[in-house]
Write a structure and sequence with these properties.
The complex is a heterotrimer of chains A (411), B (300) and C (102). By secondary structure, chain A is an alpha/beta fold. Chain A contains 13 helices and 19 strands. Chain A folds into 2 domains: 9-198, Thiamin diphosphate (ThDP)-binding fold, Pyr/PP domains (Rossmann fold, 3-Layer(aba) Sandwich), CATH 3.40.50; 273-407, Rossmann fold (3-Layer(aba) Sandwich), CATH 3.40.50. Helix content of chain A is 38%, strand content 19%. In chain A, the strands form 4 sheets. Chain A has a 7-stranded mixed sheet with strand order 4-3-5-6-8-7-16, with helices on both faces. In chain A, strands 13-15-14-17-18-19 form a 6-stranded mixed sheet, with helices on both faces. In chain A, strands 1-2-9 form a 3-stranded antiparallel sheet. In chain A, strand 3 (34-37), helix 2 (44-55) and strand 4 (62-65) form a beta-alpha-beta unit. In chain A, helix 7 packs across helix 9, helix 10 (291-304) crosses helix 13 (381-396) and helix 11 (322-328) packs across helix 12 (349-358). The longest helix of chain A is centred in the middle third of the chain and has 30 residues, at 236-265. Chain A is globular and about 70 Å long. The relative contact order of chain A is 0.11. Chain B is an alpha/beta fold and 300 residues long. Chain C has a domain at 34-102. Chain C is 19% helix and 14% strand. Chain C has a two-stranded antiparallel sheet with strand order 2-3. The radius of gyration of chain C is 18 Å and the shape is elongated. Classes of the chains: A alpha/beta (411), B alpha/beta (300), C alpha+beta (102). At the A-B interface, strand 4, helix 3, helix 5, strand 10 and strand 11 of A face strand 1, helix 2, strand 2, strand 3 and helix 3 of B.
Amino acid sequence: MIFVSKKIAKKASGWILDGNHAAAQGIKLSRVQVIAAYPITPQSPVTETLSEFVERGELDAEYIAVESEHSALAVCTSASIVGARTFTATSAHGLAYMHEMLHWAAGSRLPVVLVCVNRAMGAPWNVLNDQQDSISQRDTGWIQIYTRNNQEIIDSIIQAYKIAESVYVPVMVCYDGYVLSHTEMPVDVPAQKDVDRFLPPYRPHTILDPANPKNYNLVTLANPRVNAEGVLCHGYMELRYLLQEALQNSRETIIRVGQEFGELFGRSYANMFWENRLDDADVVIVAMGSLAMEAIVAADMLREAGHKVGVLGLRVFRPFPKADVIKALKKSRLVVVFDKNISYGLEGATCSEIKSALYGSSVSAVVRNFIVGLGGRDVKARELVDAVNKSLLSVKEGDLNKEYPEWICDI
Amino acid sequence: MKTNAVNMTEKEYLLPGNRTCPGCALSLAYRHILKALEGRVIVTVPASCLTVLHGMYPVTSVNVPCVNTPFPSTAASATGLVAGLKALGKEGVTVLAIAGDGGTHDIGIQALSAAAERQNDFLYICYDNEGYMNTGNQRSGSTPLGAISGTTPILGKQQNQKDITAIMEAHGIPYVATANASYPLDLYEKVRKAKTIRGTRFIHVFTPCSPGWAFPFSNTIKIGKLAVETGWVILYEVEDGIFRLTSASESIAKRDNLRPLREYLMEQGRFKNITEEQINELQGWVNTRWKRCLDRAVNL
Amino acid sequence: MGTRDCQHICGESSPAVGEAGKTGEWRDSFPVIDQEKCLPVRQNKPSCFLCWLYCPDAVISRTIPIKINMEYCKGCGICAQVCPAHAITMVHEEEFCPNGTD
């Protein structure tokens, strides 16, 4: 797809789009004003499609073809601070290369939206899917939203701008490389006029303007310092506190924006995770991204075998919905967490978060962790079923605490 | 009318009581750069002595808008500022990216080269104090052969500096120039000219550093002038490919009275261990570059 | 009372003189002007002003006679070096004010 974009099938009932084209449609509908990106597999079609929109005049934006991901995010943060709505997209090594700028964007409280097409990190080289890339960036102060299908990609991007520009925290929308990015599925593309009703223009909290010269991100001392008018201003720690506070409080905004979206478009996102048959479940599968869809198939199979199994599909990883998780897992006695990432030397990140949420709560479920699907390894519903059965059996045999996760691979 | 100390803009954008060392050439150069831009500017600055000059939150000693950006990203940040302003239809503001030699020759060259290739519309100024002075004087890609630094502490640097202005000229950008804090009027004129040109514009400003180079701070102007008089720094501009010597370099060329480089080197403690061989090598380097400039200059 | 009153959500700074404090306190030498020698004073018209031009800290006024803002002058001595009339002399602080006061 070098010169001409793939013909996008548009039917009366909707569009058939792969994840990358769905993302590009979401960006266009969000009336993004500055785009900067660097190509990387499997993200490249997003940037190619956006370039095409800009060159055709379908999207009135500045497109900057930068020489690196570090520069891509530097362009976005600086364009954002003069008041433009900005976008970038990347994967894996590109996201890692952005690491410094991820901190900078969040610390500057600039509502940049970034799409991460999840891909494995090297070495060795691997272009296929897992979630090690975005999980490795969880402590940079960004809101992280994971999507299960292409409809959620387009919807989440539009919501991401509204969330980011309400709480002044950048948002990363993540979707699985190839599994979603290169897989076509029916998608309802909202009408521009409806998106315009939903998403107001960006109103920056700060702006660089010669008429009112302010300086941003100067060296900040450990302790508070007074300004020239004698007002006590923050120290470095107070600014960091405000970022944490913004993320803590963003849950409410995420739910409200998701609800408003539902009212306008008929697809509600008034949740931090997707629930599937949790009401009576005593065994809960936890997964994130497209794996959460596969988990539903596994739950179906386990239900047929007589187990009361539900699925918690994490949608928002940061802020982590601690209280909601406790509530959702209150009836469970076994929680099986599947991670497409690992914090080497410990366990999968999602598992750690779930355990941390449950600590000190009234939920006393056993939590099991399986590392799956790294570097594009296929994850079959049957394997998830086997893992749950294995966990049930070992718990029954009294093996309640496993120090480390189990891996679904052939070692 | 030519600008002089009597008719130059009086308004100051650099406020007294900033954090630079006494006799700081960067402070002097920046003062005149901002004067030349008359406040219609948005600045982006990476980690550098200029960050120190700008001050500490919540107060700044500079009366123009500025954003700090991570070390490698000065030119990318400038590109973002330009793109954002353009997307919002805001006109009449110069975007100034200004970084030291570490932020330009070394960690920032990738973003700078790419922005110049894209012809992004901003003025990039490299103030060159020939080392990482803000972190306490370590060698950079601009530190000269024979100079002692924190990371060349005993033998002195074994390689000469890279010619960043020539590198930038090779990008085919519409304007490149060299300047020197000791010649503020020449610097002022070049910034004013660069302001009117569209595309990526690059000015290299030589800024002697008293603590880093080990000379008394009252000698800042003298050292800068000696650099020009010995040909270590050559003042010129290249506008659309046309090369002109300017200011003192033009008159030195016309009078053919370049002084020996040794006179410049011997004024600075950083060259205390330089060998005769190294001095000869540096002199040869200066001679070659001087001849090349004489050959290219259209105004001799 | 906390720092929320400043209403900043990121590091936003405003311009002010003396960000680093009274930088005049850094000084160990003091510029003394002999007004009789200063060219603008002698000619009684705006001229020269090289001290104003070369001051890295913008603490010299372009007036007749010139004035130096001693609250912020760091005492670098550049003005004395560039003055073509040798009208400015740097004097050690202790020599000028032995009690350590201005």
